[in-house]
Each structure stands twice: as structure tokens, then as C-alpha cells.
Amino acid sequence: MIKIKLTPKVDTFLTLEEIISKSSAEIEYVYSLLKKRGKNLFNLIKEADEIRFKLVGDKVSFVVNYNINFTNYCVGSCKFCSFKNSNNSLIKGYRMDTDKFKESVEDAIKKGVSEICIQGGLDPTFTYENYLELIKIIRRISPTVHIHAFSPSEIAYMSHISEENVEDVFRELKSKGLNSFPGTAAEILNDEVRKVICPEKITTQEWIDIVITGHNLGIHSSSTMMYGHIESLLDEAKHLVILKKIQEETGMFTEFVPLPFIHHYTLLYNKYGAQPGSTGLHDLTIFSSARVYFDSSIPNIQVSWPKLGLKFAQFSLYAGVNDLGGTLFHENISKSAGARYGEFTSVDDFVRIIADAGRIPVQRNTIYKEILSYE
């Protein structure tokens, strides 16, 4: 399959060089948090839990959403991905046709979701109009459901194939009904790491530029970090600082979602010597360090239950986490890499897990407005 280097047309608002050069003290501080183990880690966890209570109280939220991965054909070559149709993929190549996509959207609406999330590979057969049509199909079926769609890499791909600038791509998507976008494709915001794990993917600067462009148009996004592969703790520290500096610029990140690397079926682990994912203490250090460092700038920390499981997700509620993510219903990306915790969690299970932790279960929308409390 052909591989391309994306060339999105996008303006720069905040340079990576400026962030790193002006943030050396912050980077060292976050690095010192990430290194904590033993009693020092447990003290950090306690501090994170206290900050969590100060910011959001005892409410723990979740969203009733429906995930649609509409194609796994991709021009990229990310070595951590087993979702893409390739020789090492457990999932056969697929591309939803219009009828199948409509069927999925209709199923989501019947299930009463407040959000539909759509992401896919960078399909070489897709046109810009194909992407716009996905949004239009959802809007024809539901004028009100929140559409959370297209990573910064997908936005870059649309800019590349349409030769439109990123701002115009966002404007057109928003006019068709896009409400927010996932801040995935961040992986680790370090270009030396990216050259190994995702060489054709957008650069760190391009990711920053695309995210800020969307934010400046009033489009919220999540923020993420994929960790536990070849990166160092210092790389993680710089990544967290970059996210905070973007948030100080725009205020449009809804949450931070740490994403532990799922290694089992990936080239990055099986051929390129990556670690076999994170350890439990590494996970807890990420959650608690992020909570302490971000404080009120990014008030919501989400745990990825498809990657870590509900039991560990429940425990993370004592390490600064206040959100369990979504019901999902369907999820192919983590599953294809070897995640073993399923694709669906029911509202009843979320409520049970949260209440058992001594917290108040709350159903929210995508931008963290409360829909229903189970107090």
C-alpha cells in the first residue's frame, strides 16, 4: 500500500521550540513527579486525590457514547498499530459503505447515546467529500447528537487530499455538524520518538498547530498521551508540559486521557524492541503526576478502561482520576493490538464501579456538563 508524508496546510500559533525553551523548570518538575516510586509515589497519589476532590468533588463521570471505526485501510505505517489492514493485522480489511455506516448511526441513536465518536484509518480511497458525508449522514439521522470525530492526523489527511488549509477543513466540518474532535495521534510529542513509532504521521509542531486551529474556531478536543513503549520519562514530562501550554493558550481541552501502549500484536514490540506496555505503578504515576501538574488547567483526568480494565480503572479513582470514559459499544483499535477488556461497558456497571469506590456516579455529555446524577 502506498505511504505518504502528510503535508497539511496550517498556521503556527505556538512553536514547540518556544514551549521547550521557556519551560525547562516545569519540565524538570514534572520529570521529578514521574520518577516517584515507593512511599514518595503514595504521597503523590494522596496529593493527586486531594486536588481531585478540590476541583471536582466526589463526582465520577462517564458518557453514554457509541464508537464507529469506519475503515481500517490506512496510508500510514505506525508501528504501534495493529488496526490497519496489513499482514500482521488480526482484523481483515474493511471499509463501511454508506448503508452500513447509517445502520451503525441508527443503532447508536436507538441506544440513546449522547455522543457518536468516529475515527478510522487514513483510507487511500477516501475523498474529502467522503469525510464530509460521514458527518452529514449523522446529522440527517440526528440533528442533536454530539459528533466527536476525526483525530488531528485525519484532519491533516483531509487538508492533504483536498489541498485546503486546516482552518477551512475545520470550518467546513463544523458547518456540517462536527462538535468536537479527539486529541489522539499525539502519541508522544517528541519527533525523535515519532520517527521510530510513526514516521509518516504529522510532526509534533503540526499536531500542536492543528489542535490550536480547531480550538480557535471554538471546537473542543480531548488531549492524550500514549506511553509505555520506547519513550523516556523525560519525553513524557515534555509531552505533559506541551499539553498544558496549549491549554493555557486556548482553554479548549476537555480532559486528559493517558493511553497505555497495548503491545501484544504490534510491530513496535515484536520487531522494534519496545517495552511490553506500562506497569501498574507507571500508570498510577502518570495519573497522579498529571493531576498534580495540570491542577485546574485540565480539571478532568480520564482512565481508559478498554486498555486497563474496570478493576484497575476503579483503583485509579484514588490517584486523581475523575472520569471513566464512555460506554463505546464497539471498539476495534485497542482490541486489534491485544487489549482484553472488551468493547462495551454498561451504565449499570459504571454506576456499580463508581459507587463501590465511595464516589457519586454522574452521566455527562462530551464537554463535561452533567446529564444525570445517580447520587
Task: Walk me through the structure.
With 375 residues, the chain is an alpha/beta fold. The chain has a single domain (16-373), classed as Aldolase class I (TIM Barrel, Alpha-Beta Barrel), CATH 3.20.20.70. 45% of the residues lie in helices and 13% in strands. It has 15 helices and ten strands. The strands form three sheets. A four-stranded mixed sheet has the order 8-1-9-10, covered by helices on one side. It has a three-stranded parallel sheet with strand order 2-3-4, covered by helices on one side. Helix 2 (24-34) crosses helix 10 (233-250), helix 3 packs across helix 12 (280-294) and helix 9 (204-216) runs parallel beside helix 10. The chain starts with 15 loop residues before the first helix and ends with a strand.
Task: Summarize the helices and strands and which ones pair or pack.
Elements (H helix, E strand, L loop, with lengths): L15 H6 L2 H11 L3 H19 L2 E5 L1 E5 L28 H13 L4 E5 L8 H14 L4 E4 L2 H11 L3 H11 L3 E2 L9 H7 L6 H13 L3 E8 L5 H18 L2 E8 L6 H4 L9 H15 L10 H12 L6 E4 L6 H5 L9 H10 L3 E5 L5 E4 L2
Parallel strand pairs: 1-8, 1-9, 2-3, 3-4, 5-6, 6-7
Antiparallel strand pairs: 9-10
Helix pairs in contact: 2-10, 3-12, 4-5, 6-9, 9-10
Catalytic activity: 5-amino-6-(D-ribitylamino)uracil + L-tyrosine + S-adenosyl-L-methionine = 5-amino-5-(4-hydroxybenzyl)-6-(D-ribitylimino)-5,6-dihydrouracil + 2-iminoacetate + 5'-deoxyadenosine + L-methionine + H(+)
Keywords: 4Fe-4S, Iron, Iron-sulfur, Metal-binding, S-adenosyl-L-methionine, Transferase
GO molecular function: 4 iron, 4 sulfur cluster binding; 5-amino-6-(D-ribitylamino)uracil--L-tyrosine 4-hydroxyphenyl transferase activity; 7,8-didemethyl-8-hydroxy-5-deazariboflavin synthase activity; metal ion binding
